[in-house]
Amino acid sequence: MQVGFLGLGAIGAPMAAHLAKRGSLTVWNRTVARATEFAALHGARAAATPREAASGAEVVITCLPTSREVEALLEGPDGLEAGLQRGTLLIDCTSGDPGTSRRIAQRLAGKGVAFADAPVSGGVSGAEAGTLTVMVGGDDETFARARPVLSGFGKRIEHLGPVGTGHAMKAVNNALLAVNLIAVGEGLAALVKAGVLARTAVGVLNASSGRSFVSEALVPERVLSGRWPRTFRLALLDKDVGIARTFLHEAGVEGPMLELAGQLLSQARAELGEEADHVEAIRLIERRAGVEIRG
Ligand code: NDP
Q1: 64 lines ligand 1 (CB under 6 A)
Q2: Among 3, 62, 85, 125, whose CB has the most other CB atoms within 10 angstroms?
Q3: Residue 107 CB less than 6 A away from ligand 1
């Protein structure tokens, strides 16, 4: 099967690498060097334009920061839409927003191009291992077509409902990650200030009802170790919480927790910049509390 992949970022590149092993892959990236290096390393073809990446492909995958970039990529004589032929399937793995995806799906349906939103969870390590969770929005037939391709990098591939539901699921998931990240950082900062050893506090949490992915994986690997690797930008998590807030609002559900988490993350983004990792939100809590959670 001929597949086109656009967006070789932190998570897109390892996802595309799995697809390169399975069949014929053409990649496109805004920064050309990333695409040519990827192509040389993984035996793929680098396209000069989005249009070229799509032409001849049965399935095209996008993985960009937000839905805004995906929609913009469709435009123009060298844009993605110009290369999509009738019968092609476009799968958007961006953690995007439901409204924009519904608009894109409608626009492409008029050309006989199917669309599914299929954001992923599991981080860069999950992408490298090919064990991502994939949350798919689309009709039944589109899901059936997308599934075998998504299994290249996904382990749990779940069909949530019509177009947009994958994005909604992903936004809620990441909003919960954000709430937890901030709350765990605040709690640990106070415990360490009160004289409790950080490693002991985390160990107790992980043997108790307050444990979470943040306390079990992120804090030991990145905070206690003081490593702070950059794998998932804080700016992208801030964007996800924003999508979740809109989603709750449109669903008529009050969301004061997500509202506050969003405000705190936006402040952290303004202070730490666009390249900071999401876990660095805890670094900001440390800085303000005048304490380091290490050990
Ligand atoms: P990165 O910031 O690492 O990469 C973004 C990619 O989008 C790059 O290929 C970049 O190109 C491209 N891009 C940025 N702006 C534009 C534009 N205006 N036009 C065309 N291409 C553009 O992001 P990630 O790979 O981390 O994330 C991609 C998506 O996956 C996001 O929606 C994110 O929320 C989601 N995600 C990320 C996870 C992670 O752990 N990193 C986990 C789960 C989901 P260039 O190389 O030129 O900068």
Answers
A1: yes
A2: 62
A3: no
